[in-house]
Amino acid sequence: MIITADAGGIRRAADLLRAGQVVAFPTETVYGLGADAFSERAVAEIYRLKNRPSWNPLIVHVADVTAARALAKQWPDLANELAAQFWPGPLTLVVERAGHLGTGTIAVRVPAHDVALKLLDASGLALAAPSANRSESISPTTAQHVLRSLPDVPMVLDGGPTRWGIESTVVDVTVDPPRLLRPGALPLRDLRQVTGSITLPDEVADGAERSSPGMSKRHYAPRARLILTDDVSSVSAPEPVAVLTYETEDVPGAEILSVDPREYAADLYAALHRLDDRGVRTIIAKNPPPTEEWLAVRDRLTRAAAS
Ligand code: TXA
Ligand code: MG
User: Which of 96, 148, 202, 281 is least surrounded by Cβ atoms within 10 Å, i.e. has the fewest?
Assistant: First the structure.
């Protein structure tokens, strides 16, 4: 059920979360499928609904840095600097897990979305929340996308389309220099101004050498087959075909996205959802430029194209 994220809706969602249920809610990146991060049963329900493999850990969403620190064994100076600069915002930090939470690492972030922050406040919980889609499919940027991918979710809080449209940037700060685990909404350029040097993942590393458990090769995929190419007019593929390209290219009937990487990212998943709804069998997408500012978009398109 889709519920407007007004005061009443947020209260109902908080009640469900406190009762150990799962609720989808908007963040500034994509919609998340939230549950009490420290209720084993509630978290198990997230994995079940998403059909997510159990080895892939979840990001824990909290209201502020103090709440984040409470989940960590070590809170490096760099984590402080990054949090001061970018939280609330689309940056996830991987830190050592506090002793009372077991061993290993934990991923945390403070979302920059009014509804998410109000929900954290009203529930009084830390919320585990992966993107609210079936495992391996496209992340949702609207409440309607969530319901289409996960029809059994008890409640979707509708806060309108999300601003960034692409997932948060994930950085491991347990090592020096820090490691970029997933390029995302927060540009590398901004990140570097605080971190200085940072280790980059091999683009689309597959299999055993996964930098982050969730970065398997095929991910973020539409139902249609996606082909990435430099020349969209040279490809022949099973009909119906759709072309995904830039506003600067003149391809009749194509789905047109911005030449600005931030705007392109904001529209990409919505465009892929739209093409799937149209029953397209093949999506031919023009390769993004090989520059760093296109890193996150290139990452998602390459994964969507992997089969
Ligand atoms: O923007 C986002 O981050 C969205 C919104 C809802 O916050 N969430 C999201 O969650 O994208 P998910 O589960 O779809 O992706 C989380 C990523 C995965 O690649 C996962 O493997 C990685 O973060 N991750 C989670 N915990 C980790 C850990 N302890 N160490 C390394 N990677 C971790
Ligand atoms: Mg996801």
Answer: 202
Q: Are residues 164 and 15 in the same domain?
A: yes
Q: What is the CATH number of the domain that holds 232?
A: 3.40.50
pLDDT per residue as tens digits for the range 231-242: 998 888 888 999
Q: Which atom of ligand 1 is nearest to the CA of 132?
A: 6
Residues 191 and 229 in one domain: no
Instruction: State if residue 57 touches ligand 1 by the CB under 6 angstroms criterion.
Output: yes
Range of the domain at 259: 225-305
Distance 32 CA to ligand 2 centre (A): 9
Ligand at minimal distance from the CA of 107 is 1
255 pLDDT more than 70: yes
Whether 281 and 182 have beta carbons less than 8 Å apart is answered as: no
Q: What is the pLDDT of residues 122-151, one digit of tens each?
A: 999 999 999 999 998 999 999 999 999 999
Assign 179 to helix, strand or coil. strand
94 lines ligand 1 (CB under 6 A): yes
Query: Residue 208: pLDDT band by 50, 70, 90 thresholds?
Result: very low
Domain boundary among 195, 214, 238: 195
Q: Read off the pLDDT of residues 66-115 as tens digits, 9 standing for 90 and up.
A: 999 999 999 999 999 999 999 999 999 999 999 999 999 999 999 999 99
CB 271, CB 257: distance < 8 Å: yes
Residue of 235, 224, 236 whose CA lies nearest to 282: 224
Taking the C-alpha atoms of residue 211 and residue 169, their distance in angstroms, rounded to an integer, is 13
CATH number of the CATH domain containing 184: 3.90.870.10
Residue 201 within any structural domain of the chain: no
Contact indicator for 105, 89 with CB cutoff of 8 Å: no
